[in-house]
Amino acid sequence: MITSANNSQVKNVIQLNQKAKARRQQGLFTAEGRKMFREAPADWISRVYVAESLSEDEEILGKIKEESLDHEIVADPVFRQMSDTQTPQGGLTVLKKPVYTEEVFFRGEKPFLMVLEDLQDPGNVGTIFRTGEGAGITGVLLTKTCVDVTNPKVIRSTMGSIYRMPFLYIEDVVSWKEKLKEKSVRTFAAHLKGKNSYDRESYLGGTAFFIGNEGKGLTDPAAESADCLIRIPMCGEVESLNAAMAAGILMYEVSRQRRG
């Protein structure tokens, strides 16, 4: 059992929680909580840390034994220091970062992608992953200026969708325009200059939505590269919606249309 905060494993977990560079160099990230542990693919799991108070928990130990997972029991005070949350649930999983090829994003006859440009809020990105899984998207593309998907706050916000939603970092939106066009994917950008309301367009073919930075929106080059500018009608004096909310509205319109 690990009883000291000076233990090298403890220090490394804290680094993984706090430093994108450490996650990138090691190809690892952390996920806290029972749900995130329960849903984690066994081949992603590097090691599991269990608080002493849960050291006899049948659900956690059952999966550890069944899948022969490396694990460590950690004294409760030390576990609290390892945790990235104020109220630790007693389980922390260190996982291998998945690697996806471009082909994954064009599987099926009608790819359905979200392309995120410079999104900075972890909650927004995580919510888009979670909502996207519910709406049936194929995957998420993120520019390199976006928040790190393996940030613990993003991971928590995905509520497990991170395990099932392919993602890929790209140089910029414009650089992918031709690839999307080659795959017969029509691109849409939510924009104040949009001619038609989002629900007046057809998304029955390959579809990709460009979603811009929370404060600045899409850059001009990204907006100009879209095949179509669309708008989300709003009442009152509201000029724009939260990025995750706007993305959710668009994603579920595609889902609605494709259900027929």
Q: Which terms summarize this structure?
A:
260 residues
- Specify Rg, calculated over alpha carbons: 20 Å
Between the first and last Cα atoms, what is the distance in angstroms? 56 Å
User: What fraction strand?
Assistant: 15-25%
By helix and strand content, what is the structural category?
Answer: alpha/beta
Got a strand count? 11
Sketch the major β-sheet. 7 strands, parallel
| Mean pLDDT figure | 95
Order the strands across the largest sheet as they lie in space: 7-6-5-10-8-11-9
Low-confidence stretches: none
Helical proportion? Answer: 25-40%
- The shape, in one word, is elongated
The number of helical elements comes to 10
Secondary-structure element series = HHEHEHEHEEHEHEHEEEHEH
Can you give a write-up of this model?
With 260 residues, the protein is an alpha/beta fold. Helices cover 36% and strands 21% of the residues. It has a seven-stranded parallel sheet, with helices on both faces. Helix 1 (8-18) packs parallel to helix 5 (76-82) and helix 6 (122-135) packs parallel to helix 10. The longest helix is centred in the C-terminal third of the chain and has 17 residues, at 243-259. The N and C termini lie far apart (56 Å). The relative contact order is 0.14. The model has no long low-confidence stretch (mean pLDDT 95).
